[in-house]
């Protein structure tokens, strides 16, 4: 599967692509590559931005000097050399360490889950079965994007996959736990959105006052735990305090 | 040492040079949409090029200065008067305490910048004073300026200004050599997703749609087709990326661009043309032209050199003053 490519992304970034699909193995390789680039700390490195099957590398190089032009070329060469090992490397983390799983409490009550009935009908399951399947999954944060702190999760049970709404909602409440096709996600902040809303978490996912503003980071593993309305309200009050 | 908002204008935002290094968290770069006019306003006001300034969209605010200040306005051909006296743009202007600055329409573009000597006193969020409207943080509580807001000034270094006054010189604010009038030309580096015929994108003229904002310019025209219709997984995008949604109407992403996108990327507007993109108004027309990385770099370097020369000239003026 040697389809790794490297191409410019505007003037100060490069796109390293390891595949073209949503595939947990490819995504794991993306994160392994991101970690290796960051660990090497090349002096020109500004930022690594992972996605499902690719990652962007932002370079902090002055393009207006000859030295900068040479540095850019050698950075590309260096990154190219990282690609082959990224494709052939043994993947770490296949041994599941339960301590590293982040648990997200979710209320699946009707007020928090406007699309749960539609999803159950679509899947041919009961509400309880949908909740059980949703909570049984072991998810991985494939990337954080779209909005600050929005995690794209892979690992959704295929029986729960459902296409997005034909017309997006103008208002999705903060904390909404959502399904868009085969992907799962959580809206950190009230916003418009077209994914199916199957629950809501009282947890804050993003806060600029935290040392690291996102609750979740790409590469982390996540599991959902069902809570009732009372627990939801209690946790929300706690989070707001 | 503060400025009070008497009327907010259409969308007046505190902006600086933006946030870097946070795209992995889904956080946009943001910052001044027209980096050229923004830098110039700051240099004229005597600030570092990246100090926080007010970004004015289409129609400006009315502001009362509670203390004297040296200010500068750049970009958009904005109409301005202080205590009833018409003000020039692209020059430093001294205003006395109590002065009311009335900013009107942008006659030649979409965005103007108001810089105040010493800058605004604003607590940076995640390393920047920029307003992130979509995420709701930064600047003034993550929102546009409102009537009644008071903006604190960082320093008081305008003592002795008793009347509105400005020097008898100015700078030429042109940032490039494009002629005025007609279609604006925006240069593109090729994207990874080709269109059906590479020339199609460059052959037609596009109109800026009213739904455009700081996140992106939506374009209207004879739609173009992507090379294929297969689904794409979301990949990183950057300011300048030109996306092609299924309806064939391109979107040029600007400073508030989201971090990832799933539409085909058919090109990247070069950095040197971002100021021009920021000044396009709904209804304006543009045309894309192909560009090589070398040409993009040369254009950026010319722009930077021009800014450096202006900074040196301003230093010389101040030394003589």
UniProtKB/TrEMBL annotation, chain A:
Database matches in InterPro entries: CT_C_D, Cyclophilin-like_dom_sf, PxpB
Source domain of life: Bacteria
SMART domains: AHS1
Keywords: ATP-binding, Hydrolase, Nucleotide-binding
GO MF entry, a single one: 5-oxoprolinase (ATP-hydrolyzing) activity
All copies of domain Carboxyltransferase, residue ranges: 4-216
Pfam family, any one: CT_C_D
SUPFAM superfamilies, per the entry: Cyclophilin-like (SSF50891), PH0987 N-terminal domain-like (SSF160467)
Enzyme kind, highest EC tier: hydrolase
Listed EC numbers: 3.5.2.9
The protein's name: 5-oxoprolinase subunit PxpB
Organism, scientific name: Luteimonas viscosa
Taxonomic path: Bacteria, Pseudomonadati, Pseudomonadota, Gammaproteobacteria, Lysobacterales
TrEMBL record, chain B:
Ranges of residues in domain Carboxyltransferase: 24-307
Pfam families in the cross-refs: CT_A_B
Keywords recorded for this protein, A-Z: ATP-binding, Hydrolase, Nucleotide-binding, Transferase
Extent of the signal sequence: none
UniProt-recorded Gene Ontology molecular function terms: ATP binding; hydrolase activity; transferase activity
Domain of life, source organism: Bacteria
NCBIfam families: urea_amlyse_rel
The protein's name in its UniProt record: Biotin-dependent carboxyltransferase
Gene source species: Luteimonas viscosa
